[in-house]
Amino acid sequence: MYDLETRKRTLALVAQGRSLNAVSKQTGISRWAIRAWQTRIEPVTRTTECPRCAPEPQPPEDTASYAYLLGLYLGDGCISRVNGTYCLRIACSDAWPGLIDACADAVRAVRPGNRVCRVQRQGCVMVTSYSKHWPCLFPQHGPGKKHDRVIALEPWQQRIVDAHPWNFIRGLFHSDGCRITNWTTRIVAGERKRYEYPRYFFTNKSDDIRTLCSDTLTKVGVEWTTLARGSDPFNISIARRASVALMDTHVGPKH
Question: Which helix (H) or strand (E) segment is 155 a member of?
Answer without folding.
Answer: helix 155-163
